[in-house]
Sequence to fold (188 residues):
Amino acid sequence: MELSDAQLVLEMVKEKMAKAVEYLENELATYRVGKANPAIFSGLTVEYYGTPTPLAQVSSISVPDARTMIIQPWEKTLIPAIEKAIMAANLGFTPQNNGEVIRILVPPLTEERRKDLVKKARAEGENARISIRNARRDGVDQLKKYQKDGLSEDIVKDTEGLIQKEVDAFSKQVEEILQAKEEEIMTV
Fold:
């Protein structure tokens, strides 16, 4: 057992923490905050020849202005299926079609809905923090195993300190992401 084992543990921990932050960013991108944002539809699937298919694979989504989104299906026969999927997803939109495209007008958010979104964002942030702490725990546990196998106590203590610095840095990053999203949500 040597220093490289400790560095591997540190890299593994960093990677897990980075994934937690990346997941948080992707989750928060799907929040509807009163502006048209195609990421809202990232998890939406449409029945396409009997197979649930992501909306982005059967259409193009454009944003001509801040309050409008246009979904252009590759096949006009998909329009009813896309409308049905949007309504079933309960995103708060009423799709309108003209036989060619589906137009979605994004209504401004109510104060109550904004507060709900902030609560939801904070809950996602807490999940990210929990993932970061779990990564720290896993890393420290791995170091303890290596210590039993002969890794020096100094290297273990130093690496634990480095892991804690990473926890602090990633937690700060989560907090900054949440602050920015909260500000975006509450801005009318």
In short: The helical segments are 3-29, 79-88, 111-148, 153-186. The beta strands are 45-48, 51-54, 59-65, 68-73, 96-97, 102-105.
